Amino acid sequence: QQQVKQSPQSLIVQKGGISIINCAYENTAFDYFPWYQQFPGKGPALLIAIRPDVSEKKEGRFTISFNKSAKQFSLHIMDSQPGDSATYFCAASSTSGTYKYIFGTGTRLKVLA
Amino acid sequence: ETGVTQSPTHLIKTRGQQVTLRCSSQSGHNTVSWYQQALGQGPQFIFQYYREEENGRGNFPPRFSGLQFPNYSSELNVNALELDDSALYLCASRKGIGYTFGSGTRLTVV
Predict the structure, then answer these.
(1) What is the four-CA torsion angle of A21, A10, A32, A74, rounded to 10 degrees?
(2) Segment B15-64, tens digit of pLDDT
(3) Contact between B55 and A98 using a beta-carbon 8 Å cutoff
């Protein structure tokens, strides 16, 4: 019940295309869903996050879509650029209690120039 | 804000040894968590400290321990190192709702 399932494991997109990464969770107590971007040799950096009271959040080229009934959320990267090539992790947490993050297994994105 | 700083960046230890990893959090960030990230995997929660007290722990044995200090720095100690402890260890701190991660310490156990 603590798992967050992330897909696909890897993704190749042409420059200017849309990258879509999906995550699913089981624990209905989760109420905070961040996405992190990680470059090789670096720690994860927060991209965008959503709470379950909204179905979509957009920041620049990054959009989170959230489906509470399906317990799924996804990251859309519009106009993907070679600089977006990185590993992306979704996470989920409950803001009450320990507030630990449960991370997905990651998606390695490569954007072709 | 100076971010989250971890030291050292890389470390090689022998099986059975002990290691201490250090983290300096952003000023005012009174909650710090440590995560272990194995190669090709997502980070796994080790434990969390709030105002110098451990207030949450993941599925890690007691040989993983920590400390948090009043100056927003913290330590992760691992005793009796095993080969499977080889990983990237990440420190993350927060004041409000989102965590800021450091760049990690790459630990290799041989």
Answers:
(1) 10
(2) 999 999 999 998 888 899 999 999 989 999 999 999 899 999 999 999 99
(3) yes
